[in-house]
């Protein structure tokens, strides 16, 4: 008893007891809390997949197959990932109204919660690009000048160098990028929808994607400085070509008529 009392009066006794209490508390938390959290997350994910499968059966299975394997009316969705679903459904391109060379953007018919459920189900069919977080696609702090260089190198040949879009072959086209959200721009680069090539992080790192998004937003913002009136390249290649053809050819015809009229007067004189 005397030895025990002596140890209790030791200056380090309180510190030892405190450390033991903290260790016991930490051990109990590690043993119970993470497992409970993981189980809750797993349950929520399972519910999302279950609800997504119901939505898929009603709105998608007729074209993409009951298990996402694809049919003659729609491609396989195995391995496209949640990012592709979030882009296609979140921009209204899917469900498609009718088959064609390219599915246009239209009014979104699903809520974001339903889109997330559809994305969870399709992602469960096979690994693919994951829906990005706000930190990944936010253009805050990005290099706009670098984004312009990257855009002109990788995107301008189809989308026009200010993102106005343009015609492609066989009824296809590169859509106008004005007003497209940063999230959907990022997902399009990730997944390569329709006629667009994909730019995964191994090809184009996250930082470069953010730079491109910042550039597209800058050149299409209401505050963009266009001292010449209509911005250069702002009408798109088809409209600009038509303008050049009509007015350019019209000017040449006017000059030819003027030359012919003055030549005839000179001969009469």
TrEMBL record:
A Pfam match: Cytochrome_CBB3
InterPro entries, sorted: bc1_cytC-su, Cyt_c-like_dom, Cyt_c-like_dom_sf, Cytochrome_c_Oxidase_Subunit
Main location: membrane
Source domain of life: Bacteria
Membrane topology field: Multi-pass membrane protein
Keyword Ribonucleoprotein in annotation: no
Span of the signal peptide: 1-30
Binding locations of heme c 2: 155, 158-159
Sample GO molecular function, one term: quinol-cytochrome-c reductase activity
GO CC annotations on file: plasma membrane
Keyword list, A-Z: Cell membrane, Electron transport, Heme, Iron, Lyase, Membrane, Metal-binding, Repeat, Respiratory chain, Signal, Translocase, Transmembrane, Transmembrane helix, Transport
Family annotation (SUPFAM superfamilies): Cytochrome c (SSF46626)
Transmembrane domains' residue ranges: 242-261
Subcellular location: Cell membrane
PTM comment text: Binds 2 heme c groups covalently per subunit.
Catalytic reactions of this protein: a quinol + 2 Fe(III)-[cytochrome c](out) = a quinone + 2 Fe(II)-[cytochrome c](out) + 2 H(+)(out)
Name the record gives this protein: Cytochrome bc1 complex cytochrome c subunit
Organism encoding this protein: Streptomyces viridochromogenes
């Amino acid at each position: 008893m005397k030895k025990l009392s002596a140890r209790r009066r030791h200056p380090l006794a309180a510190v030892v007891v405190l450390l033991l209490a903290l260790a016991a508390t930490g051990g109990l938390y590690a043993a119970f809390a993470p497992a409970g959290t993981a189980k809750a997350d797993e349950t929520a994910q399972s519910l999302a997949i279950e609800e997504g499968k119901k939505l898929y059966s009603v709105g998608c299975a007729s074209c993409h197959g009951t298990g996402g394997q694809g049919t003659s009316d729609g491609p396989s969705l195995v391995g496209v990932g949640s990012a592709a679903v979030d882009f296609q459904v979140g921009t209204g391109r899917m469900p498609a109204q009718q088959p064609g060379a390219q599915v246009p953007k239209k009014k979104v018919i699903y809520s974001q919660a339903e889109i997330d459920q559809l994305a969870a189900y399709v992602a469960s069919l096979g690994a693919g690009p994951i829906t990005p977080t706000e930190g990944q696609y936010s253009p805050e702090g990005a290099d706009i000048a670098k984004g312009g260089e990257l855009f002109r190198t990788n995107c301008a040949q189809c989308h026009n160098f200010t993102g106005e879009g343009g015609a492609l072959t066989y009824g296809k086209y590169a859509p106008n990028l004005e007003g497209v959200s940063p999230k959907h721009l990022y997902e399009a680069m990730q997944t390569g929808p329709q006629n667009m090539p994909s730019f995964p992080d191994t090809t184009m790192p996250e930082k470069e994607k953010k730079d491109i998004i910042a550039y597209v937003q800058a050149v299409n913002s209401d505050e963009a400085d266009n001292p010449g009136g209509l911005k250069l390249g702002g009408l798109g290649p088809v409209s600009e070509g038509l303008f050049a053809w009509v007015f350019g050819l019209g000017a040449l015809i006017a000059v030819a008529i003027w030359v012919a009229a003055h030549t005839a007067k000179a001969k009469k004189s």
